C-alpha cells in the first residue's frame, strides 16, 4: 500500500477528482494548513512542518506537491519575496531530509505572477529534487527545458476533464434569460480567475473592433488586480458586455456555459489550463492560442490560432460568430475529446507512480 501526503488542498476540483479516483491500495491525505488571513500566514511554516513530521511517523512516504503559491509570504512582511524563496527552498529540502519521495505536478513551469525573488531558482531546485515530475503535455517538457529545469524522471499524464462536476439544470434559453441575454445573441464567454496573463484586455479590444449584430461578451471570474479591475469597470459601460468580476459559485458555473456559444481564452502565457478543459467538458468550442497543453486539443474542437502569424483575434471572433453551424460542430468535437480524459485512466497512471516510489 502506498501512502501519499498531498499539498496544497486547492479549491479546483481537479485534485478531488484525481485523488478520489485512485484504487483502494493508495491512501492519500491532504495537508490542509493553508492560512485564511495575512496574520495566520505568519504561522504557516510551523503548521506545515508539524504535518510533515506527523505524516512520516504515521508511515507516509510520498509527498505530492501541486502548487507553490502557499509558500509565498504576505506583502506586509519586509523582504517578503526573498524570504518566500528561502522558505520554499527550505521546505523542499525538509521534505527530502524527512525521507519523503517527492512528486511534483508541473501545473506551471514558472509562476505567471512573481512569487519569490527568484522563481526560476526555486523551480530548478524543485525539479532536481523531485523523484518524479508529472506534466500534462509534451509542451510542458519543452517549457521546462527552455527554463533550464531538470527533465529526468518525467511522466506525461493528461489533465482530467470536469464532466459531471457542476450541476446543470437550465436550458440554454433559460440561462441566457437569467444573464440578460437573448436567444438570438451570439455569446462569447471568458470564464475563470482574471489575471494579466490571461489576455482579458486583448479580448476586450478584439471584441470592440467587430460590430456584428447580436454579438455579446460575458466575462465571469474573480479579479484581484487593481489595474484590471479598472479596465473591467470601464468595459461595463458597453451594453454588449456583461462583466461579473467576482467569485462564481459551483452552483452557477453551468449557468455561464449553457448561455454561451463559444469560449475565448486568449492567454498570453500558458502551461496547463483547467479553464480550457472546463470549456471542453461542457461541450463548448474554444478560441485560444496554440501554446502549452492547448497544443494537444484537436483542431476540430475550436479555433486554435498562432498569435504571431494568424489573423487578428478580432477577425477570428467575427468569423466564428458568423458561422453558428461550424461552432455547433466544434462543440460536439470538444465534448467528445473531453470524454477521452476520464479519471480512471489518469488516476491509474498516477497510482502506478505511487506504487513504484513506495516500493523503493
Structure description:
With 360 residues, this protein is α/β, with parallel strands linked by helices. Helix 1 (14-20) crosses helix 14 and helix 11 crosses helix 13 (324-339). It starts with a strand and ends with a helix. It has helices at residues 14-20, 38-41, 44-57, 80-97, 119-129, 138-146, 172-179, 200-209, 226-235, 250-259, 274-281, 313-321, 324-339, 343-359; strands at 2-7, 26-30, 62-65, 101-105, 132-135, 154-156, 186-191, 215-220, 241-244, 262-264, 286-289, 302-305. Helices cover 42% and strands 15% of the residues. It is globular, with a radius of gyration of 21 Å.
List keywords for this structure.
single chain; 360 residues; alpha/beta; six-stranded parallel sheet
Q: Which helices and strands occur, and which strands form pairs?
A:
Elements lengths: L1 E6 L6 H7 L5 E5 L7 H4 L2 H14 L4 E4 L14 H18 L3 E5 L13 H11 L2 E4 L2 H9 L7 E3 L15 H8 L6 E6 L8 H10 L5 E6 L5 H10 L5 E4 L5 H10 L2 E3 L9 H8 L4 E4 L12 E4 L7 H9 L2 H16 L3 H17 L1
Strand percent estimate:
15-25%
Helix content: 40-55%
SSE pattern, N- to C-terminal: EHEHHEHEHEHEHEHEHEHEHEEHHH
Largest sheet: spatial strand order = 2-1-3-4-5-6
The total beta strand count reads 12
Q: Please compute the radius of gyration using only Cα atoms.
A: 21 Å
Q: Cα distance, first to last residue?
A: 12 Å
- Quick check: average pLDDT? 90
Shape: globular
The largest sheet, given as strand count, sense and whether it forms a barrel, is: 6 strands, parallel
Helical segment count: 14
Query: Which structural class best describes the helix and strand composition?
Result: alpha/beta
Amino acid at each position: 500500500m502506498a501512502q501519499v501526503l498531498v499539498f496544497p488542498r486547492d479549491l479546483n476540483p481537479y485534485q478531488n477528482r484525481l485523488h478520489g479516483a485512485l484504487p483502494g491500495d493508495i491512501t492519500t491525505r491532504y495537508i490542509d494548513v493553508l492560512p485564511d488571513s495575512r496574520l495566520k500566514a505568519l504561522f504557516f511554516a510551523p503548521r506545515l512542518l508539524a504535518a510533515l513530521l506527523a505524516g512520516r511517523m504515521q508511515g507516509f512516504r510520498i509527498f505530492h506537491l501541486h502548487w507553490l503559491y502557499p509558500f509565498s509570504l504576505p506583502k506586509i512582511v519586509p523582504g517578503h519575496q526573498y524570504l518566500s524563496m528561502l522558505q520554499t527552498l527550505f521546505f523542499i529540502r525538509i521534505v527530502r531530509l524527512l525521507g519523503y519521495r517527492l512528486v511534483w505536478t508541473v501545473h506551471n513551469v514558472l509562476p505567471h505572477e512573481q512569487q519569490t525573488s527568484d522563481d526560476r531558482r526555486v523551480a530548478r531546485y524543485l525539479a532536481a529534487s523531485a523523484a518524479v515530475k508529472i506534466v500534462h503535455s509534451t509542451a510542458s517538457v519543452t517549457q521546462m527545458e527552455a527554463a533550464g529545469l531538470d527533465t529526468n524522471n518525467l511522466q506525461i499524464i493528461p489533465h482530467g476533464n470536469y464532466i459531471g462536476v457542476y450541476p446543470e439544470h437550465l436550458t440554454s434559453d433559460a440561462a441566457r434569460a437569467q444573464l440578460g441575454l437573448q436567444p438570438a445573441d451570439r455569446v462569447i464567454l471568458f470564464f475563470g480567475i482574471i489575471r494579466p496573463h490571461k489576455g482579458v484586455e486583448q479580448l476586450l479590444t478584439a471584441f470592440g473592433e467587430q460590430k456584428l449584430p447580436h454579438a455579446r461578451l460575458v466575462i465571469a471570474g474573480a479579479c484581484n488586480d487593481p489595474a484590471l479591475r479598472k479596465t473591467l469597470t470601464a468595459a461595463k459601460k458597453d451594453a454588449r458586455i456583461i462583466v461579473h468580476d467576482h467569485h462564481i459559485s459551483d452552483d452557477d458555473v453551468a449557468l455561464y456555459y449553457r448561455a454561451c456559444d463559444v469560449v475565448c481564452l486568449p492567454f498570453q502565457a500558458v502551461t496547463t489550463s483547467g479553464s480550457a478543459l472546463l470549456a471542453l467538458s461542457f461541450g463548448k468550442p474554444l478560441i485560444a492560442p496554440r501554446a502549452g497543453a492547448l497544443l494537444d486539443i484537436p483542431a476540430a474542437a475550436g479555433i486554435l490560432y498562432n498569435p504571431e502569424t494568424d489573423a487578428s483575434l478580432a477577425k477570428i471572433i467575427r468569423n466564428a460568430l458568423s458561422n453558428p453551424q461550424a461552432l455547433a460542430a466544434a462543440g460536439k468535437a470538444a465534448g467528445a475529446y473531453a470524454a477521452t480524459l476520464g479519471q480512471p485512466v489518469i488516476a491509474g497512471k498516477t497510482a502506478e507512480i505511487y506504487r513504484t516510489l513506495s516500493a523503493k
